[in-house]
Design a protein that fits this description.
The protein is mainly alpha-helical and 161 residues long. It is built from 7 helices and 2 strands. Helix 1 packs antiparallel against helix 5.
C-alpha cells in the first residue's frame, strides 16, 4: 500500500498528464507539425508530446533501478542521442497514437508511483547524468516535471502561454 506522499505525487502527475492529453487532442494538423525548438533541436509539437509519453516508461525504469539500489547510468549525452533517435523514428507520429500512449504509459507510471511507501520514497539511487544521489521521491517527481517542462515548450511554440 502506498503512502499519502506517493498519492500526492501520483495525483500531480495525473493532473499535468491529462492537461497534455487534452492539448494533444485539441491540436490542428498545423499545430501538431509546428516546430517547437525544444532544447534547440527543432522537434515538432507531435514529436515532443510522443517523447513525453515514452518518458513515462523511462521514469518507471529509473524508479525500479533506484529501488533495487543500482545506479541510473544515463548521461546527458546519451539522453541527447536517444532524443535525436526518437525524433528521427517518430517524426510523423499521429495525434491519436500519441494521446493513447500518454494515457496508457501515464497510467502505468501513476499506478507505480501510487504503490510506493514512505520507506521506498526515502531510498536513494545514484543518477550518473546528474552526478548525484537522488531519492526515489525525486525520481517519482520527475514524471510530472518532465510533462510540465515539455508542455510549457509546446504552449510557447503554439503561442498558448
Amino acid at each position: 500500500m502506498g503512502s499519502a506522499r506517493a498519492a500526492e505525487l501520483a495525483a500531480a502527475l495525473e493532473t499535468v498528464n491529462l492537461e497534455l492529453i487534452q492539448l494533444v487532442r485539441g491540436c490542428s494538423d498545423e499545430q501538431w507539425a509546428t516546430l517547437a525548438n525544444d532544447e534547440g533541436d527543432g522537434r515538432s509539437v507531435g514529436v515532443i508530446a510522443h517523447h513525453v509519453a515514452h518518458g513515462h516508461l523511462d521514469t518507471i525504469e529509473w524508479l525500479e533501478t533506484a529501488l533495487e539500489g543500482r545506479p541510473i547510468e544515463i548521461t546527458l549525452a546519451i539522453q541527447d542521442e536517444l532524443n535525436a533517435r526518437h525524433a528521427e523514428t517518430y517524426h510523423d507520429v499521429e495525434r491519436d497514437v500519441t494521446a493513447a500512449l500518454l494515457e496508457d504509459y501515464g497510467r502505468r507510471l501513476i499506478e507505480r508511483i501510487e504503490r510506493l511507501d514512505d520507506e521506498e520514497l526515502a531510498r536513494t539511487g545514484y543518477h550518473v547524468g546528474a552526478g548525484r544521489a537522488m531519492t526515489v521521491e525525486a525520481f517519482a517527481n520527475l514524471g510530472a516535471r518532465h510533462v510540465t517542462g515539455h508542455m510549457a515548450t509546446i504552449k510557447k511554440a503554439l503561442d498558448l502561454d
